[in-house]
């Protein structure tokens, strides 16, 4: 902490971690006057070395007390903490006494810190005696976990981030790294510049921004990943590209795995046909993979979110084992997780099929070992005898009435789970729903009987583990607002009221971490080599509070033998199986369970977009993150757009067996014909009917329990509209209207937060005859300015009161909108000038530049400004960055900048000359 002079405010800088994806970037936050005023990447953190993506760089913009939960609620009424905690304890006890331990359940999140996770697992599995504790990490990485366990005997990611930079070949499978893990993408991009021999292969049904650095793109048919990698294994064997010595010394099951691969993928041409790929391109990939030792295959949701996701993971791992491509620098099958602490949740037993410290129910002696470790002087835990319900099945059990009480922490299953209507019906039926949440703006709260205000990022204090097994401190920098409390504290207080206070007498998260570290090493060293748990951080046990506060990032295992951590696993070729040998698994590929039909002929893919996170409860608080993709959308190939009668930027409807989705069409050649893509982020808080989970049926992988979110079956049709309108409403007026905005009765609406106002995009199939009358019915402030063309139904209007802009409206397609930056500023004017008032209906100053759709979110640079700069002679990304600053911070927009440069080059080549015009 420093103070420049007596009059200057105290300024402090503190290190923490980003709460978004599994990269686990270090963050340096600047704190002034009790608020975080800026963030930047931590230059010393090994995950990012100072880099941040646009979401991370906007973290300080997502803070503030507006919209935060600050007091507990019971049955719809605010109460004090004692009343709320007593209600939780008494109602859980009543249900347990009447229906048994297994009537209780918890559903957690990769947003929780490891210490929160540990206490939850201990309370529910150890002392409430229910196995039904699962996590939303089930939705993103459970198949990767199951695949690692089958192959290596443990949930152990063998690689580290440095391997991405040391590889000769990086294969991205089902991973749009450029958008979903931008910092790792930038690390690979820099490494590729430094090593011209490095190659990158992208395997994905969609041409994504990650293809910008690809030497080879394979646009495979969705669901055919296992067949492709079976083909690779078969090809390696046929061409003599196996590592026979490695297979003999360190693996088992190769003959069976190869026989299965040959049966399903006997020759290259049939594999290419099954995957809908060019045979020559496929053979190029096979040759590159087989010929290089230093190969990293980085895979994510595109592989995992499948009814056969575990098999796909093992098909990838089989190829690495067969070629001896792991356990050395720049090599290995690398699952990249989607949440900041998905790995930490796995460590403490956050999945329903786990106990704690990477022990499973079937691990010999595990139940007894954990029972003895958690036993106190007067309390004996009662652990379940077997696994509980995984996420999708958990909500089915609630629907059946088997589970009577559910405690949800830091997640939004009313939006994120498949078959969302069924999930909501189950929540409405559940006798007791307890929700620990930090914000009021979440769909789940409508189903809650008890709401407990929890701390959030910048307030929570503990640890997280990223995708490369690196444990980092996420430090509490600010006090929680109002009466919000930390999740671990809330659960400990409930435990005390249940009679378990002795086992939950923690005063600080450092004490929880210490217990977690001790359990990880408990009786581990005494086990035979094949039975020892790879997850062991006993070298971090015994840290006092000061040492815990100062804990530097470190990769597990951390033991007496490896006190500085372990960057890379399996370097000695010894695995965590009974005999120390890795297992190759025979794979028989299976197609998606959600089958296409004449009624639903299109394959649906869902996923993340660049500037949003999960259900937008955090990112939507930073208006600039809404600019890149302001509305939910349906990405459609041009041929399908023509075939199904939809048009770019017009509204359309997707329908499936499970539900319906309404959004704006984006026609894109990057999308394969016969397939569509929708983002997963929008919820009922931001749009009428654009929850991706409403389109996905509840099919899951039988081994991992992970839903088949990448393989929906849908029909596409235009949304019939008589009109479209844009409405901007001041924050003050929005707060007065609350959730009762009358225009939400429209057939389509999307709410887009802006600085100082809320933007609404509206549409309906009902003809509106008098727009001024309709606006008067919707809004308490009457229009003071308007211009109308009754002939074509166009209107612009605005209301000004006491010199301030209250609302602004335009009836007409969004393509006719002016750039909204000028109007956004007017909502923040304390009093409109006469000039600005005269220009309100135009929506811009006379001669003001419309910069177009935002491309660079970091510096708010629009498409029109970029195109203008290109036409003025800035014909490289570097030149655009020098002029406009776009692409100079996180780099996520560089692929789009390159696309615009190429489009302009094409335009320049095809533009008629005066001579050709005359001719």
Automatic annotation (TrEMBL):
Limits of the C2H2-type domain: 884-912
One GO MF term attached to the UniProt entry: 4 iron, 4 sulfur cluster binding
Superkingdom per UniProt: Bacteria
A biological-process GO annotation: cellular respiration
Pfam families recorded: Fer2_BFD, Molybdop_Fe4S4, Molybdopterin, Molydop_binding
Assigned GO CC terms: membrane; oxidoreductase complex
InterPro entries: Asp_de-COase-like_dom_sf, BFD-like_2Fe2S-bd_dom, BFD-like_2Fe2S-bd_dom_sf, CT_Nitrate-R-NapA-like, MoPterin_dinucl-bd_dom, Mopterin_OxRdtase, Mopterin_OxRdtase_4Fe-4S_dom, Prok_molybdopt-oxidoreductase
Keyword Transcription regulation part of the UniProt annotation: no
Cofactor(s) of this protein: [4Fe-4S] cluster; Mo-bis(molybdopterin guanine dinucleotide)
Alphabetized UniProt keyword annotations: 4Fe-4S, Iron, Iron-sulfur, Metal-binding, Molybdenum, Nitrate assimilation, Oxidoreductase, Zinc, Zinc-finger
Residue span(s) of domain 4Fe-4S Mo/W bis-MGD-type: 11-67
Family (UniProt): Belongs to the prokaryotic molybdopterin-containing oxidoreductase family. NasA/NapA/NarB subfamily.
Protein name as annotated: Nitrate reductase
Source organism of the structure: Halomonas salipaludis
